[in-house]
């Protein structure tokens, strides 16, 4: 029952519980680095994305301008939203909630009051004549989930607090390791915003299609190449991953390119020694890009083994 109550608070009040998580694990002179570093990394990966599109030779200028504008129009939620990041802002945002008596009110009473207040608050948004609210107000982005998100209907990318910790990011590690892990996740979500299934939507969710016929044909030709690549190298599985997971494959590969571009933009980076072997910065980048998907798990008497973590797979 306790876990159910906690789960309810995490789901229904994500920014409040996110603020608690931030205070416990990501505050203070040692830990606030994680949020600052993640925001800096997002800026650098977006800049690398912009530069990458400016260098492409297979899209025409009108299409290029649209894609760059689309990247610039992304709304970013990195950690807590900037307008919901303090106790005062959170109190004001949740002022629609009534005070509960924890001694008298039952859990169902409190949940009913919460649900009713949330519905009434959303109805007020529908009736408001103000400019559209930010995605942070209209969407409850999970803050304690080890994942990241691109929401096409809002054209927003969210990098929750929980994914800013190891193995995705750690203070004191070479930049190559952090860019290969968290940087790749960031690039993955940015690439989703360029997917042909969602790119015709603008930041308001309106359907437009500024891609020229030739640019789209060139894009699809490259997607076919990527599909063949994944179908030919399925890690021994009988599933044709090029046909069944094209959207994720596209985001994984595009995210890798964007994050690597951002790492290279930092300038020359020294090699590092891990155990008894020396790796260049770019080698470390690719090591980290693989390592982040693995976690030690117990497998009966056989002991620990490396398997894809059930907790992490950015979608």
From TrEMBL:
<dbReference type="InterPro" id="IPR000718">
    <property type="entry name" value="Peptidase_M13"/>
</dbReference>
<dbReference type="InterPro" id="IPR018497">
    <property type="entry name" value="Peptidase_M13_C"/>
</dbReference>
<dbReference type="GO" id="GO:0005886">
    <property type="term" value="C:plasma membrane"/>
</dbReference>
<dbReference type="GO" id="GO:0004222">
    <property type="term" value="F:metalloendopeptidase activity"/>
</dbReference>
<feature type="domain" description="Peptidase M13 C-terminal">
    <location>
        <begin position="147"/>
        <end position="295"/>
    </location>
</feature>
<dbReference type="InterPro" id="IPR024079">
    <property type="entry name" value="MetalloPept_cat_dom_sf"/>
</dbReference>
<protein>
    <recommendedName>
        <fullName>Peptidase M13 C-terminal domain-containing protein</fullName>
    </recommendedName>
</protein>
<dbReference type="InterPro" id="IPR042089">
    <property type="entry name" value="Peptidase_M13_dom_2"/>
</dbReference>
<dbReference type="GO" id="GO:0016485">
    <property type="term" value="P:protein processing"/>
</dbReference>
<dbReference type="Pfam" id="PF01431">
    <property type="entry name" value="Peptidase_M13"/>
</dbReference>
């Amino acid at each position: 029952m306790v876990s159910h109550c906690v789960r309810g608070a995490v789901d229904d009040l994500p920014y409040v519980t996110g603020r608690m998580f931030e205070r416990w694990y990501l505050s203070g002179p040692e830990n606030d680095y994680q949020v600052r570093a993640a925001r800096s990394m997002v800026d650098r990966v977006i800049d690398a994305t912009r530069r990458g599109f400016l260098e492409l030779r297979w899209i025409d200028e009108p299409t290029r301008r649209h894609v760059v504008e689309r990247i610039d129009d992304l709304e970013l939620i990195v950690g807590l939203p900037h307008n919901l990041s303090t106790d005062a802002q959170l109190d004001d945002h949740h002022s629609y909630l009534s005070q509960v008596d924890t001694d008298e009110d039952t859990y169902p009473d409190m949940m009913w009051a919460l649900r009713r207040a949330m519905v009434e608050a959303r109805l007020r948004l529908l009736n408001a004549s103000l400019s559209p609210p930010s995605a942070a107000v209209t969407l409850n982005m999970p803050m304690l989930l080890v994942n990241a998100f691109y929401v096409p209907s809002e054209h927003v990318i969210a990098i929750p607090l929980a994914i800013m910790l190891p193995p995705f990011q750690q203070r004191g590690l070479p930049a190559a390791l952090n860019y290969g892990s968290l940087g790749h996740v960031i690039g993955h979500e940015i690439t989703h915003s360029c997917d042909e299934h969602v790119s015709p939507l603008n930041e308001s969710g309106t359907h437009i299609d500024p891609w020229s016929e030739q640019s789209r044909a060139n894009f699809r030709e490259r997607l076919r190449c990527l599909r063949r690549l994944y179908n030919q190298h399925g890690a021994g599985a009988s599933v044709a991953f090029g046909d069944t997971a094209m959207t994720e494959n596209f985001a994984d590969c595009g995210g890798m390119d964007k994050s690597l571009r951002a790492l290279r933009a930092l300038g020359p980076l020294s090699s590092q020694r891990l155990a008894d072997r020396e790796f260049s910065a770019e080698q470390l980048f690719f090591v980290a890009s693989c390592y982040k998907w693995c976690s030690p798990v117990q497998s009966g008497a056989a002991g620990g083994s490396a398997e894809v973590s059930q907790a992490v797979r950015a979608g």
